[in-house]
Amino acid sequence: MRPEQQGIDVAVLVSVGRHPITGRARRADQDARGLELALGLERQLPGSRVSLLHAGPRAEESEAALRGYLGMAAGAGMSAGTGQETLTLLEQAEGSDAIPALAEHLAAAPPQLVITGARAERGEGSGLLPYALAERLGWPLVNGLAAVEAIENGVATLLQALPRGQRRRLKVRLPAIVSVDAAAPAARQSAFGPARRAEVEVKPAAADADREMAEWQLTPARKRPKRLKIVKATSARERFKAAAAKAESGGGQLLTDVTPEEGAEAILKLLKAEGVLR
Amino acid sequence: MSEIRRRDPRREWIARNRLHPEYASVLAEQGQGAASEWLGPHGVIRKNPRAIGFIGPNGIKRIDRSGAQQGGQAAGEARQAAQDSRRSVTIEAPAFLVAVVPELTGGRLSGHDKDLLGLARRLADADPKRPGAVLAVVFGEHKEESFGEAGIDRLLHLPGDAYAGFAPETRLAALSAVERELAPRHWLLPDSPLGGADLGRRLALRLGERPATGVWQIEADHEAPQGWCCTARGAAGSLDIQRPLPRVALALGECAEPVDETRHAAEPLTLSIEPPGILSRIEDLGQVAVDPAGVALAEAEFILSAGNGVKDWEGFHHAAKVLGATEGASRVAVDDGFMARDRQVGATGTWVTARVYLAVGISGAIQHLQGIQSCDKVVAINLDPGCDMVKRADLAVVGDSAAILTALVAKVKQQRGGQRDAA
Predict the structure, then answer these.
(1) Is B355 touching A (CB cutoff 8 A)?
(2) What mean pLDDT do residues A72-99 have?
(3) Cβ-defined contact of A267 to B395 (cutoff 8 Å)
(4) B142 and A CB contact within 8 Å
(5) Does position B310 have pLDDT exceeding 60, yes or no?
(6) What count of other Cβ atoms lies within 10 Å of the Cβ of residue B405?
(7) Given an 8 Å threshold on Cβ–Cβ distance, is A217 in contact with B385?
(8) Do B260 and B158 form a contact (C-beta atoms < 8 A)?
């Protein structure tokens, strides 16, 4: 390993979030986790450059939310040496498709790693954006990132979060797109003063209206109906049993009068068949 | 032989007199041991009120007026018949295909997969004159045996190590091959973090479709291009989006009722052209050992749980460490101070979702059994063969828990040692 490691270019795609209760604009939770990951990477690999990128309309409320990300980066030395953090805002009209603008911007000056949240908190929120970018740019994509372990010679070693608290180690050739969800490290607080002082660099971007989405009906989510337990009983006795029965499996295997070794053997067989022993 | 029914008045007399010493043998000879009703010689229904009902566990006669049970023996057969009452359905020449890619957690169809297959059946069976077939694409090894019961007509199994682990690019290449060869009308995937959510989005973009994600309801709609419209969750679950159903849909759990009335053929299917091998840019280095004590109890995969019957606590903690299991406890063990409160399993503690739950010395209070309702496999080690936990368990070993755990630990260690030697 070389003592002086070269840093990499990291772009973090950020969006305007929505507070789940008040509905106000805020920094989106998953994107903030992505930025936290990028800032951790900066500490890991000195000389790395983190840039923030957002595509959307410019408005007072959304700008306040976007400055929340800039406040996180305070003191972390983003945009090397100038002491001021910047965010690139690709300005588009409301309701236009962000994917072409982002893809164009990324293709013009390709970073080595692009970090995004798994899904947006406003609009369609389908979680398609990282996949669409990966398909357009032809880069590999890893979802559900938990940590970046190392980056050496253009290959990143990543930890992917699996359900049930498990982790999987992956090796990906850069440039790559990674998306983070709730398993990534929690975002730090945002500092208000540096957030106010930071610059937002506005660039005009091509905007095609998302016509398909304009035809959809969007309503506030209603509560999903709770699934009822359907009892297909033909007789009163079965109905009564279904209503009153305790959980019984019946099909279980009962081993009595066995030595501890035989019992342990049977248990071991089941554990192996289920694949929970590692 | 003449057709005239001959009566034996003496036997009838004995059959009517339940105090007669030969009563039981005569009834058995007449084949009325269990039957309480029969057609008499004159075509009149005769009833034997004393043959009704059965002797309950306490030696008292119980009568079930619902008519489901006639005598003690018939009950088991009736239950067997009830289980086999699914209607067999074979679709020879399907009008179209509905492709489903189940996630197969742990090699079996999960509840989410079954709901999704129920949704696929709704799409396939919408027009009874031109039924479609449900095609399931299964990657790698699996342990599932009841694909037909879940509503699958055609099963495309792609075995091989190439699909194991995180191999989205290889799987995507295989699904693209399916698309080229079979061209299903609908693609349905589970919108779950393991597999479906990732693969479905990749597939949709490869096919150039804009998928519906987080779908939880579909309705027939004649104006939509596919004939269906769907309701999907958007914006982090705060919006309901009503839109026409696209070709690729990623559905949430409980999007439809699972299939429970029919049994389908699950005919194996093969691709004529093998999917091309792909040089993946993502290399899977395998799962990382995670400290099981750090995993939240509610989402742990394998739980070793202790109750009142555990006396050797050192041995128990050691066993959990060797087996790589997350520790749980019953309320008694927590109240007695042997385990921390956050390890308590049950209605007042944590509702667990483990795939394997190993209960050591837990008798199975109803609150505890509620807490382990959604566990797949329950193993019980207990001294009392009659306790509720043993009744609930898929495998129960009656014996001293400390000795059995010690033996289990020894076997696991021996096996691991052997593996290391081999490698």
Answers:
(1) yes
(2) 72
(3) yes
(4) no
(5) yes
(6) 29
(7) no
(8) no
Domains B87-269 and B292-422 share a fold: yes
The answer to whether residue B318 neighbours chain A at the CB level (below 8 Å) is: no
What is the Cα–Cα distance from A113 to B371, expressed in whole angstroms?
43
Best of B114, B259, B288, B368 to disrupt the A interface by mutation (most A CBs within 10 Å)? Answer: B288
| Fold observed for domain B292-422 | Rossmann fold (3.40.50)
Question: What whole-number distance in Å separates Cα of residue B7 and Cα of residue A46?
Answer: 105
Binning pLDDT at 50, 70 and 90, where does residue A84 land?
low
- Per the DSSP assignment, residues forming a β-bridge with B263 are B88
CB B233 within 8 A of CB B58: no
Q: Which residues of A touch B213 (CB under 8 A)?
A: 126-128
Domain that holds residue A240: 236-274
pTM comes to: 0.76
Rounded Cα distance, A52 and B245, in Å: 35
The residue of chain B with its CA nearest to that of A222 is B240
Q: Supply the pLDDT for residue B338.
A: 92
Q: What is the distance between the alpha carbons of residues B414 and B405, in angstroms, rounded to a whole number?
A: 14
Facing residue for A270 by CB, picked from B205, B377, B404: B377
pLDDT band at B423 (very low <50, low <70, confident <90, very high): very low
CATH topology (fold) of B87-269 = Rossmann fold (3.40.50)
Phi and psi at residue B336, in whole multiples of 5°? -80, -5
Which residues are registered as beta bridge partners of B360?
A: B306, B381
Which residues of A fall within a CB distance of 8 Å from B407?
A: 260-261, 263-264
Any idea what the CATH number is for the domain that residue A152 is in? 3.40.50.620
